[in-house]
Amino acid sequence: MPATSRPTTATLPYAAAPAQGQAATPIAFVQAIVAAYAQRGLDASATLAKAQIEPQLLAQPQARITAMQMEWVSALAMQELDDEGLGWFSRRLPWGSYGMLVRASLTAPTLRVALQRWCRHHGLLTDDIALTLTEKDGLASLQLTEVRGLGDPQEFCVVSVLRNALGVACWLTDSRIPLQGTELRFAAPAHQASYQVLFDGPTRFGAPTHRLLFDARYLALPVRRDEAALQNMLQRALLLTVRPYRRDRLLVEKVRQTLAQHPEHCRNADDLAHWLNLSARTLHRQLKEEGASLQQLKDAVRRDVAVAQLQRSRRPVKQIAALAGFNNEKSFIRAFKGWTGQTPDVFRVAALGRLEAPPDSNAESAASPQTRR
């Protein structure tokens, strides 16, 4: 997804530095770009040279290039062909098309609304495919439906469009959105091992449809970007599809939920981190980045449990202390007073008094015509 303004070749980092990084992107995607050039009667040799891709690699099905090389060759091809679709669709997508989609989603309050806009507006660019966002059983599904057969570019198109949408979602929320699964209609390609890098989580080939699956709670994250951030991002927008985010903005909510629903996995930081598939060090670091700490979240969950029990049950304070995760009643009372400024008994009396108090007779009298007479 390139910028809305067309950068010159000199602004792109081809030149002297060698393409560094792990070579994991399949050469099949470069072959698809070369085919797009051939469709227009053009030669892609100069573009390959600028991206430091040796032409002989095109004849080696198992060859790989780096993410940086893929960014370079894609950016050049999109400019020279003036087609951000790189030959995927029945009509080209002029340079800046995807930039307009980002701008249309930028003012959305949440990721849910932003992705709904993205899917709807993508249909204005091309009707060869349709994007839809659905939610079921706690999972969000971003689905790509082929309205028209995509032919040879199918794999490159589907992978690029889905990775682009996911990259934009991560950028808008400033969060890594881990996938719980990727489903693709086409058969497993010879380079299927590359999909471990292209999409995290399990990938299923030969599925009924193309779609990405992720935790639906990410849809409630707020959009955190503004126009200034957009202008900066558009200078290297293709990075969204090749470099994963490290930050996970949903971690605080995941920790809170685990503490409340699975206390058996929260005996210490190591147990909790293992349950969340993290190291204890990563857990503490990411919580700190979010302005939280494990102890703060533990206290918040304990407080919520205690308040709910005091407001809604007649259980003895000792039982509530145990339910909230305290070893004894005294430490619970001390902690509860620190949270609310009241002892549990005083808090309960006040809460039950509010629930059981009759309607304010003075208020009713003030509104009654008979009383005013």
Strand and helix layout:
Blueprint: E1 23-26, H1 27-39, H2 45-50, E2 64-66, H3 67-81, H4 97-106, H5 111-125, E3 129-136, E4 139-146, H6 154-173, E5 179-183, H7 195-198, E6 203-204, E7 210-215, H8 227-233, H9 239-242, H10 251-261, H11 269-275, H12 280-289, H13 294-312, H14 317-323, H15 329-340, H16 344-356, H17 361-367, H18 369-372
Parallel strand pairs: 5-6
Antiparallel strand pairs: 1-2, 3-4, 4-7, 5-7
Helix pairs in contact: 1-3, 4-5, 5-6, 10-13, 11-12, 13-14, 13-16, 14-15
Task: Write up what this structure looks like.
- The chain is an alpha+beta fold.
- Helix content is 49%, strand content 10%.
- The protein has a 5-stranded mixed sheet, covered by helices on one side. Strands 1-2 form a two-stranded antiparallel ribbon.
- Strand 5 (179-183), helix 7 and strand 6 (203-204) form a beta-alpha-beta unit.
- The relative contact order is 0.09.
Count of DSSP H/I helices: 18
Strands of the biggest beta sheet: in what spatial order?
Answer: 3-4-7-5-6
How much helix is in the residues? 40-55%
What is the total domain count? 3
What is the arithmetic mean of pLDDT? 84
Low-pLDDT stretches are 3-18, 357-373
Sheet-strand content, in percent, reads: 5-15%
Over the alpha carbons, how many angstroms does the gyration radius reach? 27 Å
Give me the secondary-structure category. alpha+beta
- Euclidean distance between termini CA atoms: 73 Å
Q: Overall 3D geometry?
A: elongated
Described by strand count, sense and barrel closure, the largest sheet is: 5 strands, mixed
